[in-house]
Write a structure and sequence with these properties.
It is found in: Cytoplasm. This protein is α/β, with parallel strands linked by helices and 609 residues long. It has 19 helices and 26 strands. Bound molecules: 6-O-phosphono-alpha-D-glucopyranose.
Length: 609
């Protein structure tokens, strides 16, 4: 999703801006640009495609300048093109923008009536034109930005420069993140701390409706009413090294292999031989959890699948009712909230617009409280939640989520155990489940050893147009996640079904051209799944089965292949079985030659609706 980097410094900033944009590439984008103030003029370069394409244009004709703004765009209004790429210029003003301006059409036609000529199809250009109009009326850049944002509906994070005020960048945010980086004798704006971490770890997070005015040696923040406000400086714990790709071919592969470490980090100091440790949800957390009589889980994409697994766990072990819903639906429907229901938002980034909006909407609906399960401590979702449980996956760069998912499952497993314990789950069973969870890093490590065999399986899939994933029980969401991974990065159409539903429709699709990928852990549903697999086999479908080594599954069940995995026990098996499905999607995508880390049309963090 769109990224912003801006700088007010003494040194030439274009190389810093380009480095910042590269650090944000993982978010997904389709064009890039930057503008720098130089000797009273604005110099701009923009290109469709990758940052490096814009960078080569810049390097062919570099320009100096200590004040600048830069952007990676993910198209919403208007196709990806140079003309629609940011920065947009109107008169003396250049501007970059993340978000969507909902009233842009009426603002645009008003501006056209007043004679403004637009050069792009974007909603962003409207803001540049409005700010320019205000400056023409004699306002300063900061006043012009304030006046303009007051007239906007929708979401924005912006950074603006003006030819008339060299050395100054003004930023503003509502519904999209923006922060200030405090350097030595220089200041920066960024939509994500990752963009600035190579320069500074001193970060000021802007609040909703803040307007920031930075120069080399000053930083001022104002509310929408124009009054100064004070925001604290934080030391970010992000490190630039954490985003190096190292020996791996792609970030996604690196992140898949980081899972044993990431899951171990999520468990650290949270679980011991006698169970889940106290206070992992904060001091008042346990008291609040004691009162919970039901849970509503809201999330998007992969995080939604983590929520679906948690439903199986919490209902089985804690006997509490759980509903799981995608955030974009929840926020626009009148959900019934029974008394003492806990609202849970799951989000890797903590900035997904739909999830954040759903959480804000939940405030109105009378929940017992809100819990954020998130990977980014400084994110909006975390800052606005009552309780938080961080997933500690470390930065995830690949757009297709992997270690974020398994660490979400780990955090949700801790929650399920805590609730189960409070609600009287048999003690021996509780301790047995805790032991399984403590072994999860090791079980994932074992699953990763299957990579060579999975590469062979991947070769079977590369010329297929479609694939069907099957699972039962808590492995159904794992099948959903496996199919999402495959479609995201290999562009093969994939669907997932609870295996028992096969006969109610998808069986019609099964023939020799339809590979069927099944997850078959050991457990009470195994026999049922075997019958479902026979139904596929009878129709000539090719079966790829990921089976628990403890499960009794005849090798001749399939026209296809069976790969055996030690699932590590019924409780943690969903997290373990996720790993081979991630590897399968990864290797299919590599063999098909797609852009694995930045698949087409997708963004890492979707900060617009
Ligand atoms: C985007 C990403 C997905 C992610 C989803 C939710 O669609 O491409 O990988 O699962 O957003 O993101 P979140 O940060 O809220 O978990």
């Amino acid at each position: 999703m769109c990224g912003i980097v801006a700088a007010a410094a003494q040194r030439d900033v274009a190389p810093l801006l380009i480095a910042g944009l590269k650090a944000l590439e993982y978010r997904g984008y389709d064009s890039a640009g930057l503008a720098v103030l130089e000797a009273g003029a604005i110099r701009r370069v923009r290109a469709k495609g990758k940052v490096r394409e814009m960078e080569s244009l810049y390097l062919a004709q570099p320009f100096p300048g200590g004040t600048g703004i830069a952007h990676t765009r993910w198209a919403t209004h208007g196709a990806p093109s140079e003309a629609n790429a940011h920065p947009h210029i109107a008169g003396r003003v250049a501007l970059v923008h993340n978000g969507i301006i909902e009233n842009y059409a009426s603002l645009r036609s008003d501006l056209q009536t007043r004679g403004h000529v637009f050069t792009s199809e974007t909603d962003t250009e409207v803001m540049a034109a409005l700010i320019e109009e205000q400056i023409q009326k004699g306002q300063s850049l900061r006043e012009a930005v304030l006046a303009t944002v007051r007239s906007l509906e929708g979401a924005y994070a912006i950074a603006v420069i003006s030819r008339d005020e060299p050395g100054r960048v003004v930023g503003a945010r509502r519904g999209a993140p923006l922060l200030i980086g405090v350097g030595i004798g220089e200041h920066f704006l960024g939509s994500d701390a990752q963009a600035l971490i190579q320069i500074t770890n001193k970060i000021v997070y802007l609040d909703e409706d803040d307007v920031a005015d930075i120069t080399r040696d000053s930083m001022q923040i104002f509310g929408l009413d124009g009054q100064p406000v004070v925001r604290a400086v934080h030391e970010s714990e992000l490190s630039a090294d954490a985003v190096e790709r190292g020996e791996y071919r792609h970030y996604m592969q690196k992140e898949i292999f980081e899972q044993p470490r990431a899951v171990a980090d999520t468990l650290e100091a949270r679980i011991g031989p006698h169970g889940v440790l106290p206070n992992i949800f904060g001091v008042d957390g346990e008291a609040l959890l004691q009162r919970v009589r039901g849970l509503h889980i809201i999330a998007c994409g992969t995080s939604y699948h983590a929520g679906l697994v948690a439903k199986y766990w919490i209902e089985e072990y804690a006997r509490l009712p759980v509903s799981v819903e995608v955030a974009s639906e929840y926020r626009y429907r009148e959900a019934v909230v029974p008394d003492d229901t806990l609202f849970i938002a799951i989000s890797q980034s903590g900035e997904t617009a739909d999830t954040l909006a759903a959480m804000r909407e939940s405030r109105r609906r009378g929940y017992l409280g809100t819990l954020a399960i998130c990977n980014v401590p400084e994110s909006s979702v975390v800052r606005e939640a009552d309780l938080k449980l961080m997933t500690r996956a470390g930065p995830e760069i690949g757009v297709a989520s992997t270690k974020a998912f398994t660490t979400q499952l780990t955090a949700l497993a801790l929650l399920a155990l805590q609730l189960a314990h409070q609600r009287g789950l048999d003690h021996a069973r509780y301790i047995e489940l805790c032991t399984q969870l403590q072994h999860l890093p090791r079980a994932i490590e074992n699953a990763l050893k299957l990579e060579p065999q999975i590469i062979e399986l991947a070769a079977h899939l590369i010329h297929r147009q479609h694939a069907l994933f099957l699972g039962r029980g808590a492995q159904y969401p794992v099948a959903l996640e496996g199919s999402l991974k495959l479609k995201e990065i290999s562009y093969i159409h994939a669907e997932a079904y609870p295996a028992g539903e096969l006969k109610h429709g998808p069986l019609a699709l099964v023939d020799e051209d339809m590979p069927v990928i099944a997850v078959a852990p050991n457990g009470p549903l195994l026999d049922k799944l075997k019958s479902n697999l026979q139904e596929v086999r009878a129709r000539g479908g090719e079966l790829l089965v990921f089976a628990d080594s403890a499960a009794h599954l005849e090798d001749n069940i399939a026209h296809g292949a069976i790969l055996r995995i030690d699932g590590g026990g019924d409780f943690i098996a969903p997290a373990v079985f996720t790993v081979p499905l991630q590897l399968l999607a990864y290797h299919v995508a590599v063999l098909r030659g797609t852009d694995v880390d930045q698949p087409r049309n997708l963004a890492k963090s979707v900060t617009v609706e």
